[in-house]
Design goal:
- By secondary structure, this protein is an all-alpha fold.
- The protein has a single domain (4-330), classed as Rhopdopsin 7-helix transmembrane proteins (Up-down Bundle).
- It is 79% helix and 0% strand.
- The chain contains 12 helices and no strands.
- The protein is globular.
- The protein starts with a helix and ends with a helix.
Length: 331
Amino acid sequence: MGSATNLTDVLLSHSNTTSFPSPANASAVHQLSPGIITTTVLSVTFNVLGVLFALSSASLRTPFNVYIVALMCSNIAFETWECSMLGLMDAYGLVGLGSSVCTLRLYGVYVLAPIVYHTHFLITLNRAWAILWPVSYRARHNHTVAGLLCAAMVGYVHLMMLPELLRDHLYYRLPLEYGCWLNAARQVTLTEFTSIWMYDVPCACVYIIYPFLLWKMLARRRAKRRNRSDNPAAQRAPLESSNRPFILLTLYTCSTLVCWLPIMIFYLFATFFPAVPLSPAFFQGTSILYNLQSILDPLIFAITASNVLYSMYSHGFVIIFDEVNQILQTL
């Protein structure tokens, strides 16, 4: 995930207004602040440790965890790229570095960032495949398929986002004295399409698909409880280890809902309703939440992968699932 500066770029560059910073304060907007450095160090550290943890044991090197490793690698790539570009511009000045460096910086904002969104979407699609078509999933899904899906997703994001970025670099680049922005006003239709399709739609699909998957899991659990109704000790049995990926998906969905939805709402208003006044304090709050997700991603993986922590959380989820089941049965 990005920094507050990156979010400012995204919001302003996608807006159809011309309210760019003046030359006097353009450099301040792209400044490498202590907050950006702190966020980057924490995110990169936790994600690198998460990747090493995922690769440290054969039991963790599962086909599903290929998506988790891809997510953590995409976080590392975006955070290091963003911080490096901001540090370069802060040290040498954007005007002196030239338009190509600006394009490299925008590559992180408009290509590497959507890869993170789409990796979360891939995780949800993987669970949908496993829950809705378990026989097909067990027969066909493996490390190779997972790797190919991740590679195809990265290629798809490049295919969708590079035309807009290259057109801006070749024809529509704003004067660098005003900062490093995508000139959205010259590509309004394309910008609005990619804004919705590449950022909002993947997140919306996650939030739409997850409740249906939760319903299927609850129905499956009710069926299992009926089958073992003669064994009272099994009435509240812990979740099987095969449900670890679904618990991980649950935590990811909840965390992105909290961390991403507020900035998505802010972003939609800034893009399509620029006349609506938006509070700077609200933007700062949503920025903090947005930045938090890249730190939570590896921590959530560690929670679900650790046997001790998983045991604690699985019992908690059993209680929650049973209560939800009882509520649904009374409706």
